[in-house]
Design brief:
The complex is a heterodimer of chains A (238) and B (297). Chain A has helices spanning 43-51, 73-78, 96-103, 120-125, 128-131, 142-155, 172-189, 200-206, 229-236, and strands spanning 5-14, 17-27, 32-36, 56-63, 66-67, 81-84, 160-164, 192-196, 209-214, 217-223. With 238 residues, chain A is an alpha/beta fold. Chain A has one domain: Rossmann fold. Chain B is mainly alpha-helical and 297 residues long. Chain B is built from 11 helices and 2 strands, in the order ααααββααααααα. Chain B has helices at 3-34, 41-58, 64-86, 95-117, 143-165, 167-177, 179-184, 189-214, 223-236, 241-261, 264-281, and strands at residues 133-136, 139-142. Classes of the chains: A alpha/beta (238), B mainly alpha (297). Bound molecules: adenosine-5'-triphosphate and magnesium ion (MG).
Chain lengths: 238, 297
């Protein structure tokens, strides 16, 4: 089976400052994986590079066996990558339903036949979004914005969802809701998920594979079932 | 100085402001979205004026002016879209190069107009129904100037509706607010850029038609308005539509009221002074648009 996503010795830089070094990463359809690492090791940079918001300075990226290295973010979104960026990045002056509607732009992909509307599943996962549909995203609480950001990415019906610290700075009861929703996205929609997460307990129980980053490199990867979270925690916090 | 005279100048201020709105909107839209300055924008206005001249040659009569606006909107819009595709899109993130390249285009267009239509200028015969004046109280208001104001209001309303109510308008607003994220949601931001550039040029084309009602059309006609249009964009807050409109009205009024006391060129100096002083106290302009991430798509 071809990999859903495959990175081969990818490097990336902001101007002259190289941040990613020789990163290799692969995932199969429907898999869940987590990227672990302390602040500033390049997790967000990795996500932006996979999304295509940041061009690679070396290496190759494949989606479903097709090379996407030279493609812009919008083409990768249309190839089936959904993105929930760190800091949520909802469109502040658009309403909740307008934000979701922008997410539909990713459906402009070859062979997409279904209706161009936000799937009911999104409102089923996050009932709150129905109640606040007409409010401007900029005035919402962090938790509401996070639900919106995930809903917006799901509106594009991705086959891989990238999540960059979706529970950062969010109150605990909403964190629980978000984690439950992500489990349902996996099991009910079969969407593969690559998640950057500081909460090691959740990451470990959620993902079947992990990647540990240090200073722009993946220094260890494996299966969560085969390794101990405590050992990995030591590696993450060096 | 009597009240009627003062009211008349205020009216003039609004009608001049209407022209500035039409001239500045396109600049503001594309600056807001792409952070590019199009030095050829004045010549797009000029092309609109000549298109009005040609259209009215072929379609005289009372409705010719509406045909001229349609032709100028489409013609100037296509010219703008072509300019974006051939030049501006190739120079993204190189603002100085864009400035120089579009300046070059402006010179080419001016010379082109000189070669085709001559340097002396041509006149557009306004339809008869624009000749008279409508008298309100003791005040005769020239129909042509009322018409110009109506056109500006219609264009503003049309644009606002378009941005609020259509799907493309939604994508434009999304790109304007957060370019990188819009792109990650599947929005082809380059296409949105080209579209807005073309739309802004189309609006300038309509502005050119309106200019042709006020005086002869020369190859330099765009130059006389473009400097003030840039002032309007800066004063308005660099990219906001409401800010641009308010700024145009402010500048139009300052210009018209200053002309009660001094001649035109000194009024222009006073206007510039006004803008400089205003920006001293409010550097972000009338409406501050949120800072937008300029990072990669
Ligand atoms: N836009 C940028 N321009 C220049 N350098 C940047 C930029 N963004 C990040 N960096 C640098 O790249 C490195 C990796 O940053 P990145 O945001 O990818 O880390 P991270 O692992 O996501 O951190 P965090 O856990 O704090 O989110 C850091 O040294 C950071 O300073
Ligand atoms: Mg990060």
């Amino acid at each position: 089976m071809t990999d859903l996503i495959n990175l081969r010795s990818v490097s990336a830089a902001y101007g002259k400052g190289q941040v990613l070094w020789d990163v290799a990463l692969d995932m199969k359809a429907g898999e869940a994986a987590t990227v672990l690492g302390r602040n500033g090791v390049g997790k967000t940079t990795l996500m932006k590079t996979i999304m295509g918001q940041l061009p690679v300075s070396g290496g190759y990226i494949y989606v479903n066996g097709e090379e996407v290295t030279a493609m812009g973010a919008y083409q990768r979104a249309r190839a089936g990558i959904g993105f929930v960026p760190q800091g949520r990045h909802v469109f502040p002056h658009l309403t909740v339903s307008e934000n979701l509607e922008v997410g539909l732009a990713a459906l402009a992909r070859k062979g997409f036949k279904g209706p161009r509307k936000v799937p009911d599943m999104v409102f089923d996962l996050f009932p709150k979004l129905t109640q606040i549909a007409n409010r401007k995203a900029g005035v919402l609480s962090g938790g509401e914005q996070q639900q919106l950001a995930i809903g917006r990415a799901l509106a594009g019906q991705p086959s891989l969802l990238l999540l960059d610290e979706p529970t950062e700075g969010i109150q605990p009861n909403i964190v629980q809701q978000i984690e439950d929703a992500l489990l349902r996205v996996r099991t009910e929609l079969g969407v593969a998920i690559l998640i950057v997460e500081q909460n090691l307990d959740f990451a470990w129980s959620f993902a079947e594979r992990y990647f540990v980053m240090q200073r722009g490199r993946i220094v260890k990867q494996g299966k969560t079932a085969e390794d101990s979270a405590a050992d990995i925690a030591k590696l993450v916090h060096v | 100085m009597d009240a009627a005279f003062l009211t008349g100048q205020v009216f003039n201020g609004f009608s001049v402001a209407s022209i500035y709105i039409l001239a500045a909107l396109g600049l503001a839209l594309s600056f807001g979205l792409m952070r590019v300055i199009n030095m050829a924008h004045g010549e797009i206005l000029m092309v609109g004026s000549y298109l009005a001249y040609l259209t009215i040659l072929f379609i005289p009569g009372p409705l010719g002016i509406f045909a001229a606006m349609l032709v100028a909107f489409i013609g100037a819009g296509l010219l703008g879209a072509g300019l974006e595709a051939a030049l501006v899109s190739k120079l993204t993130a190189r603002p100085l190069d864009t400035l120089l390249a579009t300046w070059g285009v402006s010179l080419i267009l001016q010379q082109g107009a000189r070669d085709v239509f001559g340097a002396t200028g041509v006149s557009v015969t306004a339809p008869a129904w624009l000749d008279g004046a409508i008298t309100i109280g003791a005040l005769p208001l020239p129909a042509a100037r009322l018409f110009i104001m109506a056109v500006a209001v219609a264009v503003l309303g049309g644009l606002a509706l378009f941005l609020r109510m259509t799907r493309v308008g939604l994508l434009v607003r999304a790109v304007n607010q957060d370019r990188a994220t819009a792109s990650a949601m599947g929005v082809n931001v380059r296409q949105v850029d080209a579209f807005i550039f073309g739309l802004g040029a189309g609006v300038a084309g309509i502005g050119g038609v309106v200019l042709a009602l006020l005086g002869p059309v020369t190859p330099n006609v765009g130059q006389s308005y473009i400097v003030t249009a840039f002032l309007v964009v800066v004063l308005g807050g660099l990219g906001s539509m409401i800010g641009t409109t308010i700024a145009a009205v402010m500048i139009g009024l300052v210009m018209a009221l200053a002309q009660i006391f001094v001649d035109v060129s000194f009024a222009q100096v006073l206007t510039l002074l006004f803008v400089v002083l205003f920006l001293q106290f409010r550097p972000q302009g009338v409406i501050a648009i949120r800072s937008r991430a300029l990072d990669a798509e």
